[in-house]
Input
Amino acid sequence: MWVFESPGSLGWFLLFPVLIYLRHIRAGRGGQVTAPIQLWRGASFRPRLWGTRTWYAVCVVAFWLGIAALVVAAAAPTLVHRERVFLSPGSDIIFVLDESPTMAAQDFAPLNRFETAREVIRTFVRGRENDAIGLVTFAREAALRVPPTVDHTTVLDALESVRIMELGDGTAIGNALAVAVLHLESSPAPNRFIVLLTDGINNAGEILPQTAARVAAQVGIRVYTVGVGTDGEVPIEFEDPATGRMFRGVFDGGYDPDLLREIADISGGTFFQAATAGTLAAALQSVDTLESVERRVRIEVRRRPLHREAILVGLSLLLFDFLVRKWLLKEVL
Amino acid sequence: MDRSRILASVKRIRLISTELVENLLAGNYRSVFKGPGIEFDEAREYVEGDDVRLIDWNVSSRMNEVYTKTFREERELSLFLVVDLSGSLDAGTVRSRRDVQNLLIALFTLAAVQNNDRVGAVFFTDRIEHWVPPLKGKKHALRLIQDAVSFTPRGVGSDLGLALRTAGEALKRRGMVVVLSDFKTSNYSRDLSFLAHRQDVIAVRISDPLDRDFPVGGMVRVRDPETGRRVLAKGNSPAFRRQYREFWEAQWRQWRRECLRRKVGMLEISTDDDPAARLIQYFRRRRKR
Amino acid sequence: MTIQEPRVFWVLLVLVPVALVQWRELVRGRRDLKLLYGQWQHQEVMNLFLVKWFFSSLFFNIALFFLVLAAAGFSWGQEPIEEDRRGLDIAIAADISRSMLAADIAPSRLDRSRSVMRALLQEFPGARFSATMFKGHAVTAIPLTADTVALDGFIDALHPNMFSSTGTNIEAGIRAAYRSFYSGSSRHRVIVIFTDGESLDGVPVRAAREAAASGVPIFVVAAGTEAGAPIILADGSQVRDERNAVVVTRLDLDAVSQIATVSGGGMIRLQDGDAFSRLVAGIRSHEAVMTSEGFRLVPVERFRFFLFPALFSLICYSAIRVIRWKELF
Output
């Protein structure tokens, strides 16, 4: 938004009609040579100098625009930008996302489980402006993709770059939880929680999920668990990132609801079952509601003065006018 | 112009012109005058040195002596000046057109005085600014010169037609009318032919090098002194200079055509000419015809 | 008194071509007017032209001069703007160009920097950090986070081989570090940059000035000595130039202290024993100054002081040309 810090200076514009009259309209003005160019009440000399006349007109316009730019500069134009500033500390959140091959199961039409999960996480992130959000993904291994940060663009970029099966084949829920707890532990945020999305049974890793959940509970981190997928046979289709080969098949199996419920119970979280895209979105909405905190926001005004730009524009226009008239057109008077 | 400067210039003009008039002009101007004024005066005995062509054979046969005719020009010849005071006359590159004009006025006036002729003038712009009736006498003539130099016109245009018409109506007797103008005006042809019918008219066009060629130079805004119209001029553009020259040449041809058709004498004096020399040259040529 | 944009002074160079054009205008104008106005009033015309030419040129040049001064941003005095901030965000920018491996500070510039970074993490437990590394370009590896584990991992991994890029661009480093702050933060923001100051590309001061305009000071940890040291590669050999002379890398003290001064931060020499405590003191004092008042003091630019004379001169310049004198022009 534009404002003028000292709009009084725009009063210089009142001088414009007078100055324009003096320079361009007044009959007895100077800067011109007196010589007959026509017969009295008769033929008159009309030179065809379109190029020169156009340049001259451009110069006149440039001169007055230049002066106008300087008057505008004198009024101190400022770009005012209002910014929401969060006064209350936000929560620290880590999403723990399963990227094992089974997440490619296509029972969440039109997308597969993984894409659907990605979509709901994206929505969740956008709604938690003041919160630091991190991302841990896992299959056979678990890895921190982004530490909890308020820089949500980085989070969303990282989420976008995750590929199924990059971390092998398997489901190390315990390890993944442990990684997430490790990276939340040092945070001074008053409110910390983990959201675990998985569709498999813990079948890899050295750390038992229950152990990890207990550690989380000790440092005051809640774990929300979401079981993704339906029972029965589902078709699978994904590309192996290591070989680039497409893999197609049918998969039968599911998550372990008892384990997930237990993790949630130990750490003080909640367990959700998501068999469809709708229920998955609803699960994350519930987490959002459960973990809502009071947000105190203040509007801060940031000002960026633009007078320098205006002065430089005016200066350039005046120089243009001067150089074209005196150098290009070789104006005499 | 202040008074002392006017007096100085009147004095200067008188000095130059008196000399010129005495040396050359006086006889010339009168003899080119084709008016009705040459009348037979008397016949007298031929003296060696007289023009053989003028021997009056009728009288000679009667008198048995060789008699020759003598002539006397009409006494009451009047010279009338039509003087353009319009704004365009103030301009001039080599010198002001007005300077040339003033000098010519002085030359003609003093020549008339020398011949004991009557001299009058009309000064005009877009109106009749000043009227000096044709009168005799040195005092009157000097007065006329002083008026020409010091007069400050109120108008700026140049209605030559009006001046010619006025002169034509006011001058009852046949005489000589000299128009001193730059002819940067229009619609005068009817009045010119009306006047030329009854008077012996010489059109003196006071021109300037700028009336033909625009000097090579940068861009400049040019304002017309009479109408205030403005154009951009670009002296370093050959196309512009060509257009300029074409325009003024067309006007010049137009003027010559007007004069020739009405058998009006034409004399063009530029500000870079010596006006007296041009004038003498002109009258010499005219006398030979 | 400070000058915000000294680069604008380069614009003063246009006064040279302008003066040349004006001189040509005088010479040419005399010639042209002689042809247009003739000899009979030559002296009068020339005098008038000289007077008009002199004063209009003078006023035009004065106007240009004052406009440049106005745009250069002279400022004196300070005015407070409301800004209530609590807590601390620190953006760490680490130079990982090859010269950081030089051992003029034992064990190496980079190793010593590393220990200062780790100490910094411990010194400000409530703070959030981001980590940027730069060479010819800059990469923000860790976004703003309170996760010290991730930060520790990053610090351990810092090495010139982390990504390939030639040259050293401190400006890019500062900009990337500044971008890692997010806009809705109500915390104090500080950039700590570890570098030996040899910036081959970019204009660090420009970025520093912009950061300062938003109230972000830059603390420069100058890694290196002015005496310099050869660069040791992993195989123990030294970097040599085409003529096989050993390349010695030296701390560019002027460059680094300029960044610190312009941004209102500080410069700390890594080889000093109290380097870390001085860095901490600097950051704390920045925090303290701002927290106590809820205001931030910003310099007041006095551009109108120069702009009005410029406008006045321009009006004179224009008026001289259009007022007809002596019924000539």
Remarks:
- The CA atoms of residues 170 and 189 of chain A lie 32 Å apart.
- Chain A is about 40% helix and 25% strand.
